[in-house]
Amino acid sequence: MLQSSSVAILSPEAIAAASRSADKLSLQNLQSKMKCDPESYEAELELIYKQFQSSLELFQQQAALSFNSLSGIGADPTVAKDLGERAMFLAHMTQFYPKHLSDFPKQLADLLRTTAKSLPSSLRCQIAQALILLINRKIVAIGETLALFMELQTLGDRTLRKLAYSHIVRFIQRMNKKHKDEAKNKPLQNVLFQMLQREEESIAKRSLVTLCDLHRRKVWSDDRTVNAICMACFHPSSRIMIAALSFLLDFEKIQDDDDSDAPTSEDEASTQQPHVILSREEVYKAHHKGTTASKKKKKAKLQRVIRSMKRQQRLDSEKTGPNYYSPLTKLKDPQGFGEKLFSRLQSCNERFEVKMMMLKVIARTIGLHQLILLNFYPFLQKYVQPHQRDVTNLLAAAVQACHDMVPPDAVEPLFKQIVNQFVHDRSRTEAIAVGLNVVREICLRMPLLMTEDLLQDLVLYKKSNEKAVSSAARSLITLFRELCPSLLVKKDRGRPTDPKARPKAYGEVNVAIDVPGAELLHQDDPDADDASDLESDGLSGSKGVVSDDEAGVDYSGDGNSMANSGGEDDMRNEDRAETEDEDEDEDGSMSGEESGEDEDSGDDEVDDKEELYSASESDNGDIKDDHKGEARKRKFADFDQQLDAANTSLRALKKLTAAKLEQSTEADDHIYSNEDFQRIKELQAKTKARTALTQHGLLKGSGSKSAAIKIPSSDQLSLKPVDPSKLEAHIRTKMTKEQRVALMKAGREERGEYKSRTAIKQNKKGGKSNRQKERNKVLPIAAKRAKVAKSKQEKKRKQMRSGKQFRGKKAWK
């Protein structure tokens, strides 16, 4: 049997029998000719197909006999080589002979499925390449061979693993390039999901790597893929769990220990580039200094720098901007996921790094979806110590897990332990700074945790000699100037935007009753500007009330409300208003007794004050004669005086009710056009730009201080991850001499070596300058005498001028 099968080779006699040239043809030449004329070479195709089958049978018999080295007979390498060459040849010809080679793709797949482990590495790669060629030409469906190629990656052959992995990823990427076809994607996803749930670590690992790569390339970014990756956190194998956790945390490429697709050190070095700083001097030099060629080079370098800055800014905005994306946002059951992962964290015996990864994922899930997991905060307490390993990452996870939907009583023990362990006089400077920064970040999310006594104790660290501690304490003061200035001592309050601001109570929600940004449109309106001018003079009517409400002025003490345009003028007269209020307490009490019987409407005191304040503005016709000059001077800064004036007038209350009814109907019936919404977007962009310029100190004006601090909303805080490095103390220290020299040399990269003018002239290439030529120029005798006489006259003039100079005598004698 072996001898008969080995005789069947492509010989010149066989070709001559088929009425062809008797010259010996290689498979490549025959392949090119058969593609040009397929019908004329059917006999050769059948002959080569029979040779492939005989070689396959011969190889299978050799594998069954399994010759070893003791018998002196080994596997014939020529048989494997011939089998691989004929397999590739037939794979190229299957497209032109579909009827003759209908069983060929199935034979290749069965060969890889049954004897892939025993095949030589070169033959295995050739057969895999032949099968990939058939899939790319759509002769074989990818769904039939996906499981086979996933299993081929687990054989330990690095070349084959790279070939099969790249084929799967690129084919699915090409399939979804124009549009995503769910009918084709769903069967492939089901195959990978089933492999991911298998207990075999190797096949589950390769399926997880494939899913993560496709999700990172935004090919499969649907909810099913994300939830399958998240469910890998509960896999029995710890390596699969660690890979899934690292993907969810960093959203970066999973680096396997033995994976050839992992990024090299050169790729990492290329991605970690320092931030590029562009100065005005460089821009000026690129456009105004130097020759045309040098300007061209400088402009090209400037464009490269600008592109680098834009790329860095884009990467930073993708990581930390409001459009930050995390796979955890697409969880179907985030509460169940967090509870299940937390229960595994409590019962697992993994190393500390793995527990930290699980802590971060749980905290990130709690922050993103605003979950309530009350047992998580006591679990963190046993790790909150200054000497704990990776304590900043632990504290960042604690900050991330805090949001306004968590009851303050559940977080209060953890909060107190952070203060007691980190912020005390015997603690190190770094620990105090980290503790104050963590307290600030937690209070930004849950302001109700802070008490007045604790805040005043923490604020005292502003007098510390350490820059890190004092800056952290001042940042805490700045935060509570906006959140709740009443908790601060009077000298630490400064000039807050809203002196009556208070944090929201637990469960309190602000409900929007108008179009967001509509107040900017009314402020930009020229009619509104005229009304504001009249209001500043104390002569505005009900329009002033409307503009105040639209501008978001809230006298109930909401922490998110902003002050109106006259807030700074009111603060300037704060001390004077307090003294006058003390003098008028008796008169105010008398008026309060007279009007007490008329004010039994059931509203609270804060709402009455707000209504009466607006009523005093709407009833300027009654009190204009008595208080016109004082209203112009103080711009309604004295709130209690206006309250007394309104209390004495019952007619003011009636007008107030009518004005409020008209105001509510006007606000409800107003319809904004597309131009209004476009204008609102433009004004919001201008406001953000003005705030950014103010924060960087590039904008100075009357309203710069009020716009310098902007407290983000709870949604923005939950979406943005907490950076542990920002909790540490980063104080700019004095640079050493080596650092200054390195910084100086960094700006002289394009400069050449320093040379004196003499050295440059000596090394100058080309002819002499005009001045050098004049020195060596041969002149006639008359010209030489004239030149000497001219120099003598010039010398004499200098002597005469120097003789008339002041020699020390007094000029007036």
UniProtKB/TrEMBL annotation:
Q: What is its main location?
A: nucleus
Where can this protein be found? Answer: Nucleus, Nucleolus
Keyword Transport belongs to the record: yes
* Region Disordered, residue ranges: 521-641, 746-813
What SUPFAM superfamilies would the database entry show?
ARM repeat (SSF48371)
Instruction: Show the ranges annotated as biased composition (Basic residues).
Output: 784-813
Establish whether keyword Glycosyltransferase is in the entry: no
**Amino acid composition bias (Acidic residues), ranges on this chain:** 526-536, 577-610
**UniProt cross-references to InterPro entries, sorted A to Z:** ARM-type_fold, Sda1, SDA1_N
Please state every residue range assigned to the domain named SDA1 N-terminal: 89-464
Q: Please give the biological process terms from Gene Ontology that the record holds.
A: protein transport; ribosomal large subunit biogenesis; ribosomal large subunit export from nucleus
Q: Which UniProt keywords apply?
A: Nucleus, Protein transport, Ribosome biogenesis, Transport
According to the UniProt entry, which residue ranges have a biased composition of type Basic and acidic residues? 746-756
Reading the lineage from the top rank, the first entry is Eukaryota
Q: Which GO terms describe its cellular component?
A: nucleolus
Short name of any one Pfam family annotated for the protein: SDA1_HEAT
Q: What does this protein do?
A: Required for 60S pre-ribosomal subunits export to the cytoplasm.
Q: Which family does it belong to?
A: Belongs to the SDA1 family.
Q: Could you identify this protein by its name?
A: Protein SDA1
Q: Which organism is it from?
A: Carnegiea gigantea
